[in-house]
Amino acid sequence: MSRTRIPRNLQMLSIALAASVGAHISLADHGQARYVEQPGYQEFSGSMIARPWPVSHWIEQGLSGIDAQQRYDQAVAMIGAIAAVRNHVWQTDQYIFDLPLGFTENGVAEHLLVSGLFKFVEPNWRVYPQDCPNDSQFGSQWYHGVDRFDSCAGWDIHTGTSEVTVGVCDTGVRVTHEDLQQHRQEGYNAVDRLWETQGGRIEDIYGHGTNATGCAAANGDNGIGVTGMGWNLSHRMLRVTNSGGGGSSIEWLNHAATTAIENGDKVASLSYSGVDNQAVRDTATYIKSIGGLMIWAAGNANQNMTTNDRDADDVILVGAVSRQDVKSSFSNYGRMVDLVAPGEEVWNISSEGDNQYRNFSGTSAACPQVSGLAALLWSTNPALTPDEVEFFLKTTCNDLGSQGIDDTYGYGRINLRNAIEAAYSGEIPMRLTTSRFVAGVNGDAEVTRATPGATVVFVYSVRGLGSTYVPQLDVTLDLTSPVQAGVRTADQDGYALLRKRIPPNSQGTRVWMQAAEFQRVSNVAEVVIE
Question: Is the bond preceding 504 in cis, omega lying within 30 degrees of 0?
Answer without folding.
Answer: yes
